[in-house]
Design a protein that fits this description.
Radius of gyration: 19 Å
Shape: globular
Order of helices and strands: HHEEEEEHEEEHHHEEEEE
Strand content: 25-35%
Length: about 280
């Protein structure tokens, strides 16, 4: 269909930010930084290449995710440790903070809880910014590689994709049947992944991550968290995923406990105050 005569005028309408962030409660970054400086490591787990692992992070503690042997992307799920029905909501996090997150951004939980469950407190890749292709790091737009899409596109039965890895790891962590664990697995924070949308077709793209051994992302746990992460079979996601072709590496998750009294004035955020009446 041909464009209307006022097509240019319609395209020229200025955009409006859907969720202005000015009224959001800001995280206590200075407090977190001071608390982290004197924190002690109390737990760690290695996430094997092409597999997933889990770790518990008490509220008021830090989760440090590190690239340790080579450039590797991780698909991260976050759950309320005491209520698996409350979990990371990538869509609302994206709407509030943008397509990619970095220091100072918060990770929000799903309805009806909708509260910050973690805050990005440190990011060694915050220098990357947005590149000429519209790519950036730590996205909340990708859903996770999964066996269903692989089956649709190529007829495969691949079980080391991030969706299946997360499902197995959550089932093991909470002694759940696979079908129950799979129902709880959700869209991820793509740690270290460099992604964006093409400017001409609007397609989701990935490119080789700039992450190198020693780079890390740290999250401050605003509530008790169960973190489950898959070391993506795409490696640095510079070529493909959901296969055994890409070179992959393990990743490290650590839990750091602040000294007693170093978080004076901080409180875990309550669940959302909406009354859930929905107009009735």
């Amino acid at each position: 269909m041909s464009a209307p005569q006022d097509a240019a005028m319609r395209r020229a309408v200025k955009p409006v930010i859907c969720y202005p962030p000015e009224t959001l409660t800001l995280p206590h970054l200075a407090l977190y930084k001071d608390a982290r400086r004197a924190a002690d490591k109390i737990d760690e787990v290695i996430v094997p290449a092409r597999e997933a692992s889990s770790i518990e992070v008490p509220k008021g503690h830090f989760l440090k995710i590190t690239s340790i042997e080579g450039p590797q992307v991780g698909d991260l799920n976050l759950f309320n440790l005491n209520n698996l029905e409350e979990r990371f909501f990538s869509g609302k996090t994206r709407a509030l903070h943008g397509t990619h997150v970095t220091t100072g951004d918060r990770l929000w939980s799903n309805f009806p809880y909708l509260r910050p469950i973690a805050t990005v407190s440190h990011d060694t890749l915050d220098w990357y910014g947005m590149d000429e292709f519209g790519g950036s790091v730590h996205d909340v737009i990708g859903t996770r590689c999964d066996p269903y899409t692989g089956n649709v596109l190529s007829g495969t039965q691949y079980h080391h994709c991030c969706h299946s890895n997360l499902t197995r790891a959550l089932a093991d962590a909470r002694n759940l049947p696979l079908h129950e664990a799979e129902r709880l697995v959700h869209d991820v924070l793509n740690v270290f992944m460099c992604t964006g949308f093409t400017r001409d077709t609007g397609q989701y793209f990935m490119k080789a991550s700039p992450v190198r051994p020693g780079d890390c992302l740290e999250l401050f746990a605003e509530i008790d968290i169960l973190a489950v992460m898959s070391a993506c079979p795409g490696g640095d996601c510079g070529s493909e995923h959901s296969s055994d072709t890409a070179k992959c590496f393990p990743m490290l998750m650590e839990v750091w406990k602040p000294k007693e009294g170093s978080l004076e004035g901080w409180a875990s955020p309550p669940v959302n105050a909406y009354d859930r009446s929905h107009g009735r």
